[in-house]
TrEMBL record:
One Pfam family from the record: K_trans
Species for this entry: Levilactobacillus angrenensis
Domain K+ potassium transporter integral membrane: 14-464
Keywords: Cell membrane, Ion transport, Membrane, Potassium, Potassium transport, Symport, Transmembrane, Transmembrane helix, Transport
Keyword Membrane: yes
Domain K+ potassium transporter C-terminal residues, every copy: 488-645
Function: Transport of potassium into the cell. Likely operates as a K(+):H(+) symporter.
Positions of transmembrane segments: 51-75, 96-112, 145-164, 176-198, 218-236, 248-271, 291-324, 344-366, 372-393, 400-422, 428-447
Domain of life from the UniProt record: Bacteria
Location in the cell: Cell membrane; Membrane
HAMAP family (alphabetical): Kup (MF_01522)
Family: Belongs to the HAK/KUP transporter (TC 2.A.72) family.
Gene name of this polypeptide: kup
Name recorded for this polypeptide: Probable potassium transport system protein Kup
PANTHER family in the record: K+ POTASSIUM TRANSPORTER (PTHR30540:SF83), OSMOTIC STRESS POTASSIUM TRANSPORTER (PTHR30540)
Amino acid sequence: MKTTTRTLSGLGMIITLGIVYGDIGTSPLYVMNAIIGAAGPQKPAELAPMMLGSISLIFWTLMLITTVKYILLAMRADNRDEGGIFALYALVRNQAKWLIVPALVGGAAILADGTLTPAVTVTSAIEGLKGQIVGPLHFSTEQSWVLLVVTGILLILFLVQRFGTQLIGWSFGPLMLIWFTFIGLVGLHNLIQVPLMLRALSPVYAVQFLLSPENRQGIFILGSIFLATTGAEALYSDMGQVGKRNIYGTWPFVYAMLMLSYLGQGAWVLQHGALITGARPLNPFYAMVPVHWRMFAIVIATIAAIIASQALITGSYTLVHEAIGLKLLPRLRIKFPGNVKSQLYVGAVNWLLCGITLSIVWYFQTSAHMEAAYGLAITITMLMTTLLLRAFLQQRGHRLLANVYVTAFGLLESLFLLASLAKFVHGGYVTVLLTLAILTVMVFWHVGNVRRDAHLANTENVSLLDFVPQLAALSQDDQVPPFATNLVYIGHVGEDYAVKRATVYSILDQQPKRAKVYWFVTVNETDTPYECTYTVQQLARSVMDVQLYLGFKKPQRLNVYLRQIVNDLLNEGVLDDQTPRYSSIPGRRVGNFKFVMLNQQFQDLGAQEDLPLLDRLLIGGRLLLQRISLSPQRWYGLAFSDVVEERVPLFIGQHPDRTLRRRKE
């Protein structure tokens, strides 16, 4: 949901709390629990060093990664106020071809790891009800009913996505303000009783604990610490919805409330060590809440978990939409249920996320098991963002800063990645497999398209200028029956007006198609998110080359755009009058449109012996995805337009077979 309050304002900051901080804001639900669970049984004397060291590591992780890297640095790398790994790649992609690698890997990883966020946050919240007594209700300590409730909540959440969440979204901000204020005050209440926990703000305790023999996990403790900052990448991605100034204005408050919660949990653990080291250890987050406030804590935690899940789901839609615009993923049906551009709905992504998330809930069963698998893939995304940010800094002329940055954060995040590798056997393999699956689709779609175009480039492009005289003559030839007033071919017109031979073949050879105006339209996805501009080159009175420039967040509605272009050219006198003789629309000036879609296919891909095996595999995968993805008609918004689909062969490797001989009679 894109708000109109991009400038710093009270309303803008409240909305920012609801949109941006859902993921990182619910981390106190499970981070301390994950640290204690991973550390195993502790002696009372070991609790103080562990709490001081762990919370110090959390504080400085949030300071270095979330504050320094993302808030202070990454948010400067905005693409017309839009953030995220794909928006960042769009800024630097012309600098080097290899930058596509971190974009693909990072994008796949963040989509895969995000499937755990709804599962772990909602499960952690509902587990707080176990053993609680509310009036006549006595909640069992069994996990089975928790799984059913979590499943119901998540199903409802995914079901309502198609209707849009604009009205619900406006309530997210005040609710998250209540959430952050509550966890901060509860944390402060416990911290006052053990003020020595404030020592954890010193980095000395972080380093001492990390290197101490009392830390039995060693470096692998960072795998649990990292959970406190997993929402930083989502924070950067959501920047475009609220504006960076509102994030600058709200982060100090959010950071303070998070740290008060962690410090309060640490203080409670020091006072109630026996409850932590017992056979059934308690979650410090709920345990530190006074009994008469505990039910409120569970309710507001559940609401915060739902908000975090909602932010993750809509963030996934945005990432997929951007990837499609950058030609990194196949076309999918995209709907805009709200009145704002960034509120979109991708049905295929929604139900895929739903299926995977519910499978994770039932596979891992408890939030503790989910926490053990959480965060592995996101460390990969952060490393990929670091590489892209280095390219951005170099592009701006800051070479020294770029090298210092990539060295410092590259080492830090590599350390977290190494620590998180221990999660692989505890369930991290799930997100790794999902990452590889998404990455495979991206590679086949993007690289397969690049390799196909490379083989087509030298053999199947012709200059449109060479055929303009024939097109102009055909347009005036009364002996050929009219095919359309405006005949439109959507493709790519390159340098020197190069087009695919199949395009010209379709007009002149298969069946001469007479039209009043021939339109050759190139749709260019631009780096600016919402650009909507065009240029026109008139090659003849009846031949038009249109370059349409659409931002990667702009919907593709070619029929609407072309009618506007024709009206503009009619007003300028560039086109001849097209007023139809018969029409039910008063004042109509534009004639009919007919769109021709060329469906290029291989006659036999396996028989293309001149193609390397890898290229055949990549191109074949790309064509397979093309068959099951959204059709060009629906993608370009032409579902209700007059569209003709023609199947033509791909002219790759169509060389003469020199073994062919004429038989002697």
